[in-house]
Amino acid sequence: MSIKGKAYIVGAYEHPARHAPDKSTPQLHAESALGALQDAGLSRDDVDGYFCAGDAPGFGALSMADYMGLKLRHIDSTETGGSSYIVHVAHAAEAIAAGRCSVALITLAGRPRSEPFRRGGGVAPPEADFETPYGGQTSNLYGMCAARHMYEFGTTSEQMAWIKVAASHHAQYNPHAMLQNVVTVEEVLASPIISTPLHRLDCCVVSDGGGALIVAAPEIARSLKRPLVGVMGAGEAVKGPRGGELDLTFSAAAWSGPPAFEMAGVTPADIKYASIYDSFTITVLMQLEDLGFCKKGEGGRFVADGNLISGVGKLPFNTDGGGLCNNHPANRGGITKVIEAVRQLRGEAHPQVQVPNCDIALATGIGGALGARHGAGTVILEREG
Amino acid sequence: MAEPSTTRKVPAPQGNPETGSFWDAARQGRFMVGRCVSTDKGGCGKAHYYPRSICPFCFAPGATLEQASGKAVIYTVSVTYRGAPEPYAIGYVELEEGPRIMTNFTGAALESFRIGDPVKVVFIPTEPDAPPVPMFAPA
Ligand SMILES: [Zn+2]
Questions:
Q1: Does the CB of A245 have a partner CB in chain B at under 8 Å?
Q2: From A117's CA, which of A213, A262, A263, B53 has a CA 20 to 30 Å away?
Q3: Model ipTM?
């Protein structure tokens, strides 16, 4: 089912907290929901669909739905890690198009700086004995992809560093960003190695916080006083080691992107602003290639020399500072990717980073581990009128 | 240059009814891969890893374990310096039989492992009474 023009993002809210020792995680979800509802001009009682992922405390959506007093016709707790919330936008648009709800709330929140995340018990995943002994952790599961990319395509650490440099140029204008200092390529390369070839400044920040989105049916969106941001196309995909047919040179974005562009009827050249999930610099580089912003293997050259800096380069990205500099609530950056895309389309980004005449934007994300199993979600959004 | 990782505590495999025979073989120093049934029996005949009872490529039932040569080439490697008590080298190797599998590198300085280098399987102890796990050392 095409969702083109069948739903609109009418509310978006990024929680300002970056360190929240004196709030609960459910509270951050609810405060984010309230913020998004106020942004939309809607009330809690208008919500009839709720979407959340693995950061939501409790059993699927049930605990948070009850905590917030939601009366629901539709729930969806699809879990693809940090990309979940981009996937949720698409699922919400599909549910709205199918008549299963009319106002969908999506929330994310977490406090990795303030409380340990407890994974549920249950049965060990099938790969556990064949991977856990080797110490796979987030940094090396991305580092292994960067190492292979450098080997295959000649990508350099200097080129990857440009992605952090660009994010820092944007973060200097965001008073909530955790890292507000503009950094240079040399400073990225001088930061300590976390897992080769990735330096500390190739990595995203760890932050508390949260965010929420409201997706609504066209007639509701048109009744509100906010600019119309339509969902024009979406795609999702999952990718893993595939029984040994592992290929670390591309991400699942190679499969989530094309259907999104096709549904929206646009090409990468039409995208004025892109929110690209930036858990690490390499994550951005590979998604840019996989989405067709440049050819496979040319990502390093594409991102160099400020090409991602708003007002400087050809493809302004992550103008809030992204996960690399602004925040990464609950270690999941998908919702903030959509939020900044909505700000750009509304013309509500910081004036220093606002893209002129920003009418078509993309938000894309990778959740899970790029070097093992991960999920990708891509949405293309358009401002109407 | 970091020294070879010899003291990092390696978590013991837990095993399950499907993979118990893989770990029994590991205790005997035999490194196994999964092998699909042949094409004349409705399978694809290809090797896969980690081993499953139903082939992940063609979904034919009846896959079995087969002893691998233990020869491989490094597909990627990353040396991790943070988030663990001591540095270690994690990567994927491409087995002679085809599958690319996650592993650690041992038996040489951590920074000495390079993509494309030939390596061979070695078994590294985990915990008393638990099976060892396959890792790879310079060939
Ligand atoms: Zn098969």
A1: yes
A2: A213
A3: 0.95
